[in-house]
Design brief:
Strand 2 and strand 3 form a beta hairpin. This protein is α+β, with helices and mostly antiparallel strands. It contains nine helices and ten strands.
């Protein structure tokens, strides 16, 4: 009976390691040929060191290919362990750095160099780099916070005290936000993480609130009928969220009876929201025409006194 793997991980690994394995076969063949032709022990020892160094370099190259963010291996790992897509490039670059450093240290030790000073130099160099690049590190760790907490994602509409727009790209140094005038703003992550962020895309609904100013001469029955018709229209409207619908006579204004209209649309998309709002406004106009109700305009009555007579 033929056994077939239930996953394609083995195929992915073979694809990633194909070229290093080919090179390994070539290097091994050359080593065997040269070893046969060597005439003394010193040549054999040098040849062995070169072969072992080549072997380390080939293994390092294989792991380097496997850890690349664009490989199928990384994509499958992301799907299986649910790794955030923003973390993949960071993990890949970190692994690349570690692999290269290890390969250099091992080969240097194999060829007889003192690697202790090199390792110490790496530590001191890293400390100097950290002190010189504290802003970069602050942006990096702020980027980690953004990736882990996910206050926003790409294509989300956000607003901060300094900028409002759509998130276009998130990296570990900065976040790019496309403003509504199509200008692109790059905000350092350390600045962004320290600010209050309003994510409008996370809303499940979008509010509409305004006042309908009825003429002061509108009869009580007409007011009640208009309020009832508008509320019923909103309840039956497919684009209106049914949870909160308020239509109430709230104020006696200076020149009008003010009807508060408060509700939410089911969509948060701006274009769809405006389309629903326009449709509702037109329906309200139709209700006002049907009820014979007029909209009030701001006005004042002035009275002048003339020789004891009041004229208006």
């Amino acid at each position: 009976m033929c056994y077939k793997s239930q996953s394609n991980w083995d195929e992915i690994i073979i694809i990633a390691l194909g070229k290093p394995l080919q090179l390994l076969i070539i290097v091994f063949g050359l080593y065997m040929a040269l070893d046969i032709l060597s005439t003394n022990i010193s040549q054999e020892q040098l040849l062995l060191k070169l072969f072992r160094s080549s072997l380390v370099a080939i293994v390092g190259w294989a792991f380097y290919r496997l850890s690349a963010s664009t490989t199928l291996f990384s994509q499958k790992a992301q799907e299986r362990w649910n790794i955030d897509s923003i973390l993949i490039p960071l993990i890949s670059k970190t692994l690349h750095f570690l692999i290269i450093a290890l390969v250099i240290i091992i080969i240097a030790g194999e060829l007889g160099f003192d690697v202790n000073g090199f390792i110490a130099g790496l530590g001191l160099g890293g400390l100097a780099l950290a002190l010189a690049a504290k802003d970069m590190l602050a942006n990096f760790f702020a980027g980690m916070v953004i990736v882990m907490e996910k206050p926003f994602l790409i294509d989300d509409w956000i607003e901060t005290p300094g900028v409002e727009g759509t998130v276009e790209d998130i990296s570990f140094r900065s976040t790019k936000i496309r403003k509504f005038d199509q200008s692109l703003v790059t905000v350092p992550n350390s600045t962004l993480a320290a600010q209050a962020i309003t994510n409008y895309s996370r809303r499940g609904k979008r509010r509409i609130s305004f006042y309908l100013n009825m003429n002061r001469k509108t009869p009580k029955d007409a007011i009640e009928s208009t309020i009832a018709h508008i509320k019923q229209m909103l309840i039956e409207h497919s684009g209106v969220h049914s949870e909160t619908i308020l239509v109430n006579f709230e104020f006696f204004a200076e020149s009008s009876f003010d009807i508060m209209i408060y509700f939410f649309t089911n969509t948060t998309d701006w274009a769809e929201h405006l389309t629903i709002r326009q449709d509702i406004n037109l329906r309200i106009i139709g209700i006002l025409e049907e009820e014979g109700v007029e909209i009030s305009f701001p006005s004042r009555s002035l009275y002048f006194a003339d020789a004891g007579n009041i004229k208006s």
